[in-house]
Specification:
1% strand; 2 strands; two-stranded antiparallel sheet; 2 domains; mainly alpha; single chain; 283 residues; 82% helix; 11 helices; MetI-like fold
Length: 283
């Protein structure tokens, strides 16, 4: 018995000694993924003879990041524009999330309101955002609103729908026995909402927020595409597409910066979920 315990302990220690740190596993995974993408990218370009203006070499994209401009290197210019887009998206994300959460609560509390307006909420997402974005930008400009506000409204438009649907589902997902128990103790609707429905909706809320975080970035970029915008990563995408033939690497550099911005937004919400949901479970 003692020998078997000693053997198990030594085996566990050997495994721990041979195991790689978590950060090293993640780094190795990222490196492997980058190598595979690079091989597929350059291999496809060589096999199918794709011209540079359609698919530039990875070296051209890297060179575009460090190319000097009157405002500094390209990566610094893109970073500043990405920060401006992130501000627009953050405002829209906040507005859309708060509005969506309030609508979901109203739909849960008042069934006639849900039956009357939920179809319109769903139908609102069938309207192409690229069609209404210019109208919002021009309309808000004529009202004298700050230039970033119209982009934030577009971001909020793409943000509120996932929040409405997921939070509504979360509020309705309470255990039936727990609900009956609360009612047997004569709990009010506000007490049931605060103690039962709201905690049950937290995982659904964060699922919606992770979707909305990336959608808000897309909305802000789409709002920057109409003529008249001077700042933002969307403006740089338009500039890159205009000069794509002469400088194909710059367009892909802007696309990579936009993708990194979306990934960062998703990661921040995922980190908040990990902290808050863990705290809820411990509580």
């Amino acid at each position: 018995m003692t020998n078997s315990v000693t053997l198990n302990e030594s085996t566990g220690a050997d495994r721990q000694g041979r195991s790689m740190p978590r950060w090293l596993w993640l780094l190795s995974g990222y490196l492997i993924a980058f190598v595979l993408v690079a091989l597929i990218w350059e291999g496809s370009k060589a096999i199918f003879e794709i011209p540079d203006y359609k698919l530039p070499h990875l070296a051209q994209i890297a060179e575009a990041f460090v190319r000097p401009t009157p405002k500094g290197p390209v990566w610094l210019v893109l970073l500043q524009d990405a920060a401006y887009t992130a501000f627009e998206a953050l405002v829209g994300f906040t507005l859309g999330s708060v509005t969506g959460f309030a609508i979901a609560v109203l739909f849960q509390r008042y069934l006639p309101l849900r039956r009357g307006f939920l179809p319109y909420v769903i139908a609102s997402q069938t309207v192409p955002i690229i069609a209404i974005a210019p109208m919002i930008v021009v309309g808000m400009g004529r009202l004298g609103a700050p230039p970033w506000l119209s982009k934030s409204i577009i971001a909020a438009y793409l943000t509120f729908f996932p929040v409405v649907i997921n939070v509504l589902r979360g509020l309705e997902s309470v255990d039936r026995d727990a609900l009956l128990l609360m009612r047997s103790y004569a709990a009010t609707d506000n007490q049931i909402f605060r103690l039962l429905r709201l905690p049950a909706s937290v995982p659904y809320l964060f699922t919606a927020l992770k979707i909305s975080a990336t959608a808000s970035i897309i909305g802000a970029i789409i709002g920057e595409l109409p003529v008249g915008s001077t700042r933002g990563i969307g403006v740089q995408i338009v500039v890159g597409s205009q000069y794509n033939t002469f400088n194909p690497g710059f367009l892909w550099a802007t696309i990579i910066m936009a993708a990194l911005l979306g990934m960062a937004a998703y990661a921040l919400v995922a980190l908040a979920e990990k902290r808050i949901v863990k705290w809820k479970r411990e509580e």
